[in-house]
Amino acid sequence: MADLSVVGKHNHATMEDVEKSPTKTSGDEFECEFTPREQKHIIHRVDRRLVVTVGILYCISLMDRTNLSAAAIAGMTKELNLGVLIGTVSRYSVVTLVFFTTYVVFQPPATIIVRKLGPRIFLSVIVVLWGAVMLGMGFVNDWESLAALRVVLGILEAGFFPSCVYLLSTWYTRYDVGKRYSCFYILGSLASACAGILAYGLMQMKGLQGYAGWRWIFIVEGALTMFLGIGGYFAIVDFPDKAHKSLWFLNERETKYIMDRVNRDRGDANIQPFSAAKFLRAGLDIKIWGYAMIFFNTTTVSYALAYFLPIILTENMGFSVGAAQCLVAPPYAFAAIVMFTTGYIGDKYKMRGPIIAFNMLLCLIGLPIMGFHSNAAVRYFGVFLTTAGANSNVPATMAYQANNIRGQWKRAFCSATLVGFGGIGGIAGGLVFRSQDAPDYHPGLYACIATSLLTLVILAITTVVFVIQNKRAARGEIELEDSDEDHQRGFRYTI
């Protein structure tokens, strides 16, 4: 994790230390007034200020989004009668589902709004507001009120993830972004790992002030979210072209270095004036929908685990409530290790497709073990493989699309559609494990296996297309990613 390491007393290289003679970096191949050491210090500062800040906020976002399962087994299901069926679907599944209806719908405009308002204002405000909604969920007395608050939560959280994906992609070159996406998402995985343990601790507050333990899960985590949202305003940085105005984060010369670096890599660091036609025209590129479908397949599995793993551990594997809350943590910790390792390898060897294929193979091995082995301990081992494969594929897919899209507004559109389809995957993930299929949940397992196989099929198709297009570009027959925003010749798809 060298690129995110703390540099100690050299965190902020002063301009007095800058050598006047131009240097070249081995990776960027452009004239630069900073020494290689100073260049690394600048990137480290970006890592610590940008990746860590949005990662911590995403950690809270994912915790707030998935603490429903912890509250469910802590007494919420019984108190609010969430086990009652509405047709063939339980009230609990409806409560998980309604979040994604607004979460998907409100994502496309989010990347436009964050560009206009700036990340500091937009992201910090929505974090504080959804923290207030989470806190309010601790005081509901019926399942309809809980569902209504989940709808509002979906509206507020809709803008966060696509805006972060878009913001990160504007700061880094194509073969730097994989590790950063992994670190960003690792913090989310750690949230999922620790959420169960935290929830178990908060459950012990049962009876305090007359509130049930599950209510304290929402109250405490909601208040924590609001606090971090306020702090986020002072830590979040703007887009590279405006970064020197973000609380003296970078000066203009350092900002120019970042932008020159990105321009040299893919030629899209400078923002073009917004045009609705230009923004929506990106939807005509079939590749964007291929990336989105891969993300849908991935999030179907990851959300299914997030929402139902504690329930599966209790009903299918026979663990107690306390044990299930704590046993959620180790698979996500293992997923974090796999996630960073694959992100590092992908950046180092400049590949994306094989990483996605590897992650899906982990799922295809883990899901049958998790669902069909007779021994509960072995089934729990399957949970490790499935959790690692599904969650590691989230940053891998983000890096795959980021490497193969150029143009600021096309990138914004792609981030919105990618995460939007991830939200649809959340809807699917919230429905695949139905209460009537307990305790084996075989239909849900079949659905997760099918999405993993579909990812491999789509990946094979895009790989063939990329190889053909790269060969044609090498012969000078076409200019890849041809549009009025794409000026750099020699661009090749990353396979």
TrEMBL record:
Region annotated Disordered, chain positions: 1-29
Domain Major facilitator superfamily (MFS) profile stretches: 50-472
One Pfam family linked to the record: MFS_1
PROSITE patterns, alphabetized: MFS
Cell compartments where the protein resides: Membrane
Compositionally biased region (Basic and acidic residues): 13-22
UniProt entry keywords in alphabetical sequence: Membrane, Transmembrane, Transmembrane helix, Transport
Highest taxon above the source species: Eukaryota
GO molecular function per UniProt: transmembrane transporter activity
GO cellular component, one term: membrane
Gene3D superfamilies for this protein: MFS general substrate transporter like domains
Membrane-spanning parts: 50-74, 94-114, 121-140, 146-169, 181-202, 214-236, 288-313, 319-341, 353-372, 378-400, 412-432, 444-468
Membrane topology field: Multi-pass membrane protein
PANTHER family referenced in this protein's UniProt entry, alphabetically: MAJOR FACILITATOR SUPERFAMILY (MFS) PROFILE DOMAIN-CONTAINING PROTEIN-RELATED (PTHR43791:SF47), PERMEASE-RELATED (PTHR43791)
The protein's name: Phthalate transporter-like protein
Organism: Trematosphaeria pertusa
